[in-house]
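Appendix B. Raw example, untouched.
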Amino acid sequence: MSTKDEELISNVGSEEKYAHKPNFSGVWQHVRSDNLDAFLKATGVNWFMRKVAVRSDPIYTIFHEDEVIRIIFSNGGTSRETVFVIDEEYDEMDWNDRPMRVKVYWDEDSLVELHEPTEWGNGTALRVTKFLRGFDLLIFVLELGDVTCRRYFRKQLATNRLPSLNE
């Protein structure tokens, strides 16, 4: 490869790098989960919290611009926000408030999150794969050992535009 070719490749902006990837932006309403209770049990969530989670219908509001994704999870009176850059590791707390290191990357048209405990013996490693079916169905596949859960979210029609990441 010539020096000129290498220079052109290295100067590709993130907007071009991610132009062919799906954009997850939108407001996503939970419509169904398969095997959620078993998955949460495998992660160590107590019986009461599992029953609450199984009966809930959370909303994910996602702002996706190039390699930056901001997710606001809301469920009744609680909400949680995460902002990350694809292909960079970040730290967050899991469902049981245990510290985790998360790596997010593209695998074809799926966004993959690898969650690893940062303290030995405190938490469980898991994989979350997110992908679109059509333009209005977002699917999460959560995997922990041999336990798999699928969660389905329907895109809500926008009545107002979503704010950008900077608003």
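End of appendix B.
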